[in-house]
Structure formats: structure tokens, C-alpha cells
Amino acid sequence: MEIWQAIILGAVQGFAEFLPVSSSGHLILIQRWLGVTEGSLFFDVMLHVGTLIPVIVVFFKDILELFKKPFNKILLLILATIPAMLTGLLLGDLVEGAFYTGNLLSAILLSATFLLTATELFFAERASKKNSTLPLSVKSATFMGLAQGVAIVPGLSRSGTVISAGCFCGLERTKNASFAFLMSIPVIAGAGLIEGYKCVKAGIVIEPLPLIFGVITAMITGYIAIKTMLKVIKKANYKWFSLYLVIMAIASIVTKVAFGV
């Protein structure tokens, strides 16, 4: 992998991780277009780990509040994290086999999941504008956790799916945003540890310089994306992301059929 490719992928990861468009789906698609194949899944996960830094910076006060009595929010966070951890452990290899092959079927699957995210965002905007006043509860945390578990599938945006779940629960918008971003921390960290272990065990070697440039780029663009997304959530304006994902779904199929990439 060249350094310029790593920078492009880092920027894609940073922006797409927190904007509701699926970072993993975009990384698969852009890697396909750039012809990057070596260690792609591990590289993806390390870029995800890079985006942990801006989450911690932006939500540092929220993280500290998790450890204050009566510890209700951290208990809800643990509850919401369980589904993603289980699905990642049980279905991670299956997902890798289906989406990282680069064949026509994987392109079709990616298009389908992009369209699914577009649909959920369209209805989430309507739901949020009708009702967004409820506090965080066991019910909303559980529903958001299940949504995050489903969103391990590339093309299903983690942030988009989780925030949509909060909208459908009628969760107040700032609480929805804060909790959705906090939910990303244990899941991304856990995925990084697991994939790191797999990489070492399999003897996979990733060039350090492209990885460093990619991760730094993901950190910077991730910070920009978080700030942008917080403004978007306040207005519950998701329709443009839906339109964008429809375009990307079409592009995934067309480029594979017409150009073989």
C-alpha cells in the first residue's frame, strides 16, 4: 500500500465513521477502486481505532460522568455494548468472507446495505421531528445496542443505525448523539484488540509508514466529522445522506459491472 492510498483511506474512515454513511462500507469500496488488497480488514480496523481519539477528546466530560454515582449511564452503556460484541465474535468471519472478496456478489451486498442505511435515515428524520423528548432508558439503550450489533455488516452505518434507533425511541437529540458516540468506544477498541491478535497470530505484516499516515488522517478527519454530525443531529436533517448513499449503492454495482473494480 502506498502512503497516498493510506491517506485517502484514512480520510474516508475519519469522515465516514461519524457521518451516517458507513465507514466500513466506504473502505471496502474505495479499496476496491484503488486496488488495495493486502491486510485490508486489519488496516480498516486500525483506522477505526484511530477515530477513537477524537471521540475521547470531544466527549471527555461525558466519559468522566460515566464513573460518577449512581453509575446509571455506564450500566446502560455496558448493556448497549453486549449485542455488538457478541455479533462481532460470532459473525465477524462470515462478514469478512461475504464483503471482502471483491467479486460481484460482494458489490451487490454492499449496494443493498447502503440502500438499507439510506432508508433507515429517511424514516429516522421523520421520527425525530415528530418526537425527540425522551430521556435515555433501559429500553432505548437496549434498542440502540441491538442496532449497533446489526451494524457490524459493512454498508450499514454504525453511527447512522444507532442514531436512527435513538430517533425511533423518541430520544432527545443531544442525549441520542452523546450516547451513540460513547457506544462506539468499547466496540472499536474491542475490534482493534481482536483483529490485532488475529494479525499477529496469522503473521500478517502491514507496512508501518502507510498505517501511521492513515491513522493520523483518520484522527483529524474524525474530529471534523464529529463536530459536523453534532450539528446535523440537532436539526435531524438526514435526507441528504440518504440521497448520497443511494448514489454510492449505484456506483458499487456500476463500477464492478462496467469496469471490473
Explain this structure:
This protein is an all-alpha fold and 261 residues long. Helix content is 80%, strand content 0%. The protein is built from twelve helices and no strands. Helix 6 packs parallel to helix 8 (138-150), helix 7 (104-130) packs parallel to helix 9 and helix 9 runs antiparallel to helix 10. The longest helix has 30 residues, at 173-202. The mean pLDDT is 90.
The averaged pLDDT comes out at 90
Tell me the distance between the termini: 17 Å
Oligomer state of the chains in this structure: single chain
Q: Work out the radius of gyration.
A: 17 Å
- What low-confidence regions span 5 or more consecutive residues with pLDDT below 50? none
Summarize the structure.
The protein is built from twelve helices and no strands. The protein has 261 residues and is mainly alpha-helical. It is globular, with a radius of gyration of 17 Å.
Spell out the key features of this protein.
80% helix, 261 residues, 12 helices, mainly alpha, single chain
